[in-house]
Design a protein that fits this description.
The chain has 224 residues and is an alpha/beta fold. The protein has one domain: 3-Layer(aba) Sandwich (Rossmann fold), CATH 3.40.50. 27% of the residues lie in helices and 30% in strands. The chain has six helices and eleven strands. A hairpin with a 2-residue loop joins strand 3 and strand 4. Helix 1 packs antiparallel against helix 2 and helix 2 crosses helix 4. The protein starts with a strand and ends in a 12-residue tail after the last strand.
Length: 224
């Protein structure tokens, strides 16, 4: 780990850690969207994770953020964002705001982000992290059941779901715009598929982007 000295205190060189993460974990594994790479190069991931795991902020792994929830590994955050093919004009629905990091990434790639978090304390944490890092200007964080989406601002040009369920909630498919793209892990407690759903001219197509393992999607209507 690269370190620097600030005011007599030795701390990690977070900028160098970010550069290394982007080069090795992202670009080195095939993430090629320059806007996605730029967003993860700029956003201070260390400011979104708990203090007790901050030293691992750029590790190639998910990290616990409390309440049985995790922040995804950087590669998975980048892959999901890349698969949405955002051009900067979209309103994006994010299900599972967690600590707010993925919302910060999406906010750099889209016009607006609506992030839903079932656990009120995590919704508060996401808001605070986004505010403190100056990343919340175009992000609305809502404490609620993400399985139901957020009808008020639908349809969405893109939807990103950061938790797994046996199938994609029907409410999210209904709220996906046309054209629109949705990315979500699907499966049980073991191995899951990261599925990409595209809607175009009334037709819905599904493909598998990769295999993954996410925490379960919680909420009252997982099956729509």
């Amino acid at each position: 780990m690269s370190i620097i000295e600030v005011g007599g205190t030795v701390i990690p060189n977070w900028a160098e850690e970010r550069r290394g993460m982007v080069a090795t974990q992202l670009a080195g594994r095939g993430i090629s969207d320059r806007r996605v790479l730029g967003a993860l190069s700029e956003i201070p991931r260390e400011e979104f994770v708990p203090l007790d795991v901050r030293i691992q902020a750029y590790a190639d792994a998910p990290l616990g953020i409390g309440f049985g929830q995790t922040i995804s590994q950087p590669y998975m955050t980048a892959l999901m964002a890349e698969r949405l093919c955002l051009d900067g004009s979209e309103t994006v629905l994010e299900v599972g705001a967690g600590c707010g990091y993925a919302a910060a990434v999406l906010a750099m790639l889209a016009a607006r982000v609506v992030a839903i978090e079932l656990i009120p304390a995590l919704a508060d944490l996401a808001r605070e992290n986004l505010r403190r890092t100056g990343r919340g200007g175009n992000v609305k964080v809502i404490a609620g059941d993400g399985c139901l989406g957020w009808e008020e601002l639908a349809p969405y040009g893109a939807i990103s779901v950061a938790a797994a369920a046996p199938e994609i909630p029907a409410a999210l498919v209904r709220q996906l715009g046309d054209p629109g793209r949705l990315v979500m892990p699907v499966g049980g407690d073991g191995d899951q598929e990261l599925r990409l759903v595209t809607k175009l001219d009334g037709r819905i197509d599904t493909s598998v982007a990769t295999y993954c393992r996410f925490v379960p999607l919680r909420g009252g209507q997982k099956r729509g």
